[in-house]
Each structure stands twice: as structure tokens, then as C-alpha cells.
From TrEMBL:
PANTHER family: METHYLTRANSFERASE DOMAIN-CONTAINING PROTEIN, METHYLTRANSFERASE TYPE 11. Keywords: Methyltransferase, Transferase. InterPro entries: Methyltranfer_dom, SAM-binding_MTase, SAM-dependent_MTases_sf, WH-like_DNA-bd_sf, WH_DNA-bd_sf, WHD_Rv2258c. It comes from Aurantimonas endophytica. This is SAM-dependent methyltransferase. The keyword Cell division does not apply. One of its GO terms (molecular function) is methyltransferase activity. Pfam families: Methyltransf_31, WHD_Rv2258c. One of its GO terms (biological process) is methylation.
Length: 354
């Protein structure tokens, strides 16, 4: 064994302590979201833990003091040792209290908990090579996934991603037919429908509980008169004649993405567009050795690859497939034109045409 470099060892242990501190924060942060403690700090200004406990609805002061100190130690909230008051900076509020912020991360913490819940199933699958059916990993994985993606969708679909496509926004404004495949709980579908009232939208997903929730969201938003949600796999959709087909963060989860691409080509109008939104990634693993790649590779290990391997073919693209692989998948379906239309910190948008 090579001699241990003490400086490197201490640096590595320091990194591990930071990582473990983040992991230990998952349950306390989730409690903070559910009990609206971050909201109370945002709305009430600097306050002691006793004042925070009272403002948040008469919670137990001793628990709230320990909770607040834990968040302050992690840098999630601020603490003034002179006044013993806690507060939330505008930057921290963007992550913990501003629900329409593109950086609101409540769903991310719920996803982390879902991955822990699904640990035994994924571990067993690593031994057998089998998959884990979507929805079986954790009790409400699909709820957490929807909450995780919603802030990014709310701040990008209408504002950036659709405008990046050639002529699509104008079509939607005039009235077009849209299929949102792999729609989950329907946030992406409804955001588009709200922005383009003359167009017709159908959301498809193979997970029935997600579709049930999507239908509730449509009713709650008063959009169920022109937005439908149907249970179907991507390859079994019987409707056609779509002007736009969207895949939001789902192509890499599909067992047979090439078969899905072929079917998309069949149900898309000749002059139609296929928009594929996927996690940002380089084409080589070495390109993804960064904080974003770390998040996506871990999520992919626990969620995306097991989901794909549970389905027919089981290609298992993973969440860091990269543009080159994804473009090859799209072209295999009969699309001759594929380009990257937009790039963000967490996603890339591919535009495909016949």
C-alpha cells in the first residue's frame, strides 16, 4: 500500500464531513418545508428560536431551537450570536421559500428521501440485473419528481425552451395539437396550456397514479376542458396528427427509447417538431465529473437506470447519456434533423424534425 499523504487525507475527510452534513440535513430540511419554518423566517425577519416557534404555529420551542441551529450550522439560514436571532437571506429564500424561484429545491430533498427509501430494491437489482418499476421505488416518488422539476419548467418552458424552437411558438399561438409524452403529474402540460390557450394538449404517461394526479391538477387550474391526460406507454399511443410532441426529462428513462422515437415519427405531422428536454451532460463521463453530474449520476443509479431496465429492451441510457447518444437515438427513429436548441444549467433542449 502506498504511503498516506496526511494533507490529502485530511482534505478528503473534510470533504466527507461536508457531504455527510448535507446528507444529515435532508430530514431536518424536509421538516422545515412541511412546517413552513423557512416561510416564517422569510416573512418575519430576524427572530429568536422561541419567536420562530410561535410564528410557525406554536411549535415546541426546544425542538425549533435545535432545528434552527442545525440549519445555521449548514449555512441554510443565518444566525447572529449577539442577538441569538435567526434569519433568511434573499439568496437562501430563493432555495427554501420562493416557490416560483427556478432554484426552489423542496422537491430535491424529497427525491433524496425517496432514493433512500428505495435503496433495498436497487441493491437487490444490482445483484440480479433486473429493474425496479417506476412508482415502486418509493411511496410517492412521482410526487417528489414532479415537485423537483416544476420550478425549472415554470421558469423555462414558455420563457426559453419553446421560443428556441423554429416556428413552434407561432404555431401554438395560432392553435396546434400537442402531445406531452411522459408527462408525469402534468406540470409541463399545464404550463404550456396556460400559455397557449388556442392549442389542444394531451398528456400521456404509463404511470396511472401520476395521470390521476395530473387530472386533479387540470381541474384545479380550470384547464380540464381543453387538456386531457391519458394512461399509455410512449409506443402505444393511438392518436396521431400532432404538431408538437414534447418529452420532458423522460427519454432516458424509457426501456426502448429507439422504439419510442420511431413511434413519435409515426404520430407526428410531417411538418411537426419533437422537443426533447434532457439533463445537461457532456458526451464523455469525464465531462460530467462536476456537481451537476454528481447529482444526476446518483439519481440515475437509484431511479433512471432501474426504471429503464424494468421495461422491454431495457437500454438503460441513464440521466447522463449526453447529446451525441441522445441524437443517435432520435435519428434512429427516422428524424434527419436534430439540433441543440437551448442549454441551461440543468437541462439541454434538442429539436428534431423529419
Amino acid at each position: 500500500m502506498e504511503q498516506v499523504d496526511e494533507n490529502k487525507l485530511h482534505a478528503f475527510v473534510g470533504k466527507m464531513l461536508g457531504d455527510l452534513g448535507g446528507a444529515y440535513s435532508v430530514p431536518t430540511v424536509r421538516i422545515g418545508f412541511r412546517l413552513e419554518l423557512f416561510d416564517a423566517l422569510k416573512d418575519g425577519g430576524p427572530m429568536t428560536s422561541d419567536e420562530l416557534a410561535e410564528r410557525a404555529g406554536g411549535l415546541a420551542p426546544r425542538y425549533i431551537r435545535e432545528w434552527a441551529l442545525a440549519q445555521a450550522a449548514g449555512g441554510y439560514i443565518d444566525y447572529d450570536p449577539e442577538t441569538e436571532q435567526f434569519s433568511l437571506s434573499p439568496e437562501q429564500a430563493m432555495v427554501f421559500a420562493e416557490r416560483d424561484s427556478p432554484f426552489y429545491l423542496a422537491g430535491a430533498f424529497d427525491l433524496a428521501a425517496a432514493m433512500i427509501e428505495g435503496e433495498p430494491k436497487v441493491e437487490n437489482s444490482m445483484k440480479t440485473g433486473t429493474g425496479v418499476r417506476w412508482g415502486d421505488t418509493a411511496e410517492c416518488l412521482f410526487c417528489a419528481t414532479g415537485a423537483f422539476f416544476r420550478p425549472g419548467y415554470a421558469n423555462n418552458i414558455v420563457q426559453n425552451w419553446i421560443p428556441s424552437l423554429d416556428g413552434v411558438a407561432a404555431k401554438l399561438e395560432d392553435g396546434a395539437r400537442v402531445a406531452d409524452i411522459g408527462c408525469g403529474v402534468g406540470f409541463s402540460t399545464l404550463l404550456m396550456a396556460e400559455a397557449f390557450p388556442k392549442s389542444e394538449f394531451v398528456g400521456f404517461d404509463f404511470h396511472e397514479p401520476s395521470i390521476e394526479q395530473a387530472r386533479r391538477h387540470a381541474r384545479d387550474h380550470g384547464l380540464d376542458d381543453r387538456v386531457r391526460f391519458e394512461v399509455s406507454t410512449a409506443k402505444e399511443i393511438e392518436e396521431d396528427g400532432f404538431d408538437l410532441i414534447t418529452f420532458y426529462d423522460c427519454l432516458h428513462d424509457m426501456g426502448d427509447p429507439r422504439g419510442c422515437a420511431r413511434h413519435v415519427r409515426e404520430i407526428l405531422r410531417e411538418d411537426g417538431t419533437w422537443m426533447i428536454v434532457e439533463p445537461i451532460a457532456g458526451d464523455r463521463p469525464s465531462d460530467n465529473m462536476n456537481p451537476i453530474g454528481r447529482l444526476y449520476y446518483n439519481a440515475s443509479t437509484m431511479l433512471c437506470v432501474p426504471t429503464s431496465l424494468d421495461q422491454e429492451v431495457g437500454e438503460g441510457l441513464g440521466a447522463q447519456a449526453g447529446e451525441a447518444v441522445l441524437s443517435d437515438v432520435v435519428r434512429s427513429g427516422g428524424f434527419s434533423q436534430v439540433r441543440r436548441a437551448a442549454t441551461g444549467p440543468f437541462n439541454m433542449v434538442l429539436e428534431a424534425r423529419a
